[in-house]
């Protein structure tokens, strides 16, 4: 189940804070399953990408979410960046994709 599904920003922050307190209180593990890249943060230490019921890539979160892995996983060019501890996935615009397809730089 999506941990943050249906929460407004205040509810999201409260649940996130509660989970962080729970983990920092001792030997606790939280497993987050999501299809939403905006929920992936550096608060998590490890990640696994699954495709067709099989593990595609596993490891430390910042080693899994890199452009090469995401491109191979999705089959398209996707920009991957981390900003303020949050994963940002970007899709090139149609114009950018056309320029790349035809080798144009202007």
How would you portray this structure in words?
With 106 residues, the protein is an alpha+beta fold. Strands 1-2 form a two-stranded antiparallel sheet. A two-stranded antiparallel ribbon has the order 3-4. The termini are far apart.
Short description:
The chain starts with 8 loop residues before the first helix and ends in a 5-residue tail after the last helix. Helix content is 34%, strand content 22%.
Q: Any descriptors?
A:
106 residues; alpha+beta; two-stranded antiparallel sheet; two-stranded antiparallel ribbon; 34% helix; globular
Overall pLDDT score: 83
SSE class: alpha+beta
Task: Give the number of DSSP strands.
Answer: 4
List segments where confidence is low: pLDDT < 50 over at least 5 consecutive residues. Answer: none
What is the strand content?
Answer: 15-25%
- Helix proportion of residues, in percent? 25-40%
Radius of gyration: 17 Å
| SSE order | HEEHHEEH
Strand order of the largest sheet: 1-2
- Shape descriptor reads globular
* Termini gap: 45 Å
DSSP summary: helix tally: 4
Largest sheet features: 2 strands, antiparallel
SSE diagram, text form:
Layout: H1 9-24, E1 46-51, E2 54-60, H2 61-64, H3 67-74, E3 79-83, E4 86-90, H4 94-101
Antiparallel strand pairs: 1-2, 3-4
